[in-house]
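@channel sequence for tomorrow's demo:
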Amino acid sequence: MAGRFAQVLRLQTADHSSSDEEQHERNPVSWLARALRVPGRERRILVQSAKATLAATAAWLLATLVLRLPQPFLAPYAAVFLVEATVYRSLRGWLQQVGSVASGVLLAAVAGQLIPWQAVALATVVFLGLLAGSWRRFGDSGVWVGVTGMLVISYGTAREPVLLGDRLLETALGAAIGVAVNTLIFPPLYGERLAAAAGRLGKALADLLESLSDVIRRDEPPEDLDGLLSHEQDTRSQVLAAEEAVGLTREGRMLNLRRARPSAGTNHERPLRTLIGLWPAMSQLLAAVRTTAGRREHPFEYPWPDARESLADLMHHLAGAVQSVAMAGEPVELDECRALLEKLEKRLVTADEDGVPARLGLGTMTLPARLLLEQLEKR
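structure tokens (generated this afternoon):
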């Protein structure tokens, strides 16, 4: 269960930190100072950890001092786990957790009545509970069916209806407190992730386009394209991180009492979606360059130098446009891109002296460039 809590914290704080941020994490004093000074990842960790502590303590005190429940260990457990990454996840988790724990308690009650041997009853409850917990409606809380049943059997309360009711009550109480704390006290928002993700992805895509421009300008195809492949994989990772940022930000606004307030990064959401949408065409362009430039046994398929120069210029101007998109509010100049693309497409139709193989190579790389431009025009 401790692993589940660690997973919750990772979901709350997942981000691709820079080297400066990593340096802060190595120094606890600097990390704490940054959390208090700057809104962002560190502060979110601090706030969510404090909220989980408050929820667990409140659940324990209420269960012991007010309701006087004996050994209400499930109350603080449930409270901690329900301080989720978003308010939506907390509410969904409350339903899943209460349902899974109730199922585990009922399963233990039935086993306790029908099976007189504790060891056999425990084995039966764990096995059936884990099977039942795999139902997708339980989500991540499904493991609680088997675990709760195991704990109830182990504590010898499976045949005592009053204690079984206590287990259900303390779980519902702890989960409700966790949801309330996460909903009412600084409910988490992730708008600032959009600005950071847009900056990182814009730079990665622009750098990749510049690398392609350099490759295309060469008179001879490069000996080794592994560096380009590594660059492609790094950029793909940034695309995945950006998709996660968009999803978590959208989910963070659902049922959130702070959603109506202006949040950092709001104006970066549409530009970031545009950048993410560039990746399919970018992937096609990379495949085209690798196929055309890497086939040294057929060098005549490589476009003629002047055609490659225009194509490389197009890559360079597309890189500039991508960087402008990442900087929300900046004008995006596409006129030069359109002119170069029109020039290349005209050459594909009219330049018979290039020969079919060379035009084939040029067309293979021009089509994805057209798709990139169209995606940028729809921003």
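heads up for whoever presents: The mean pLDDT is 79.
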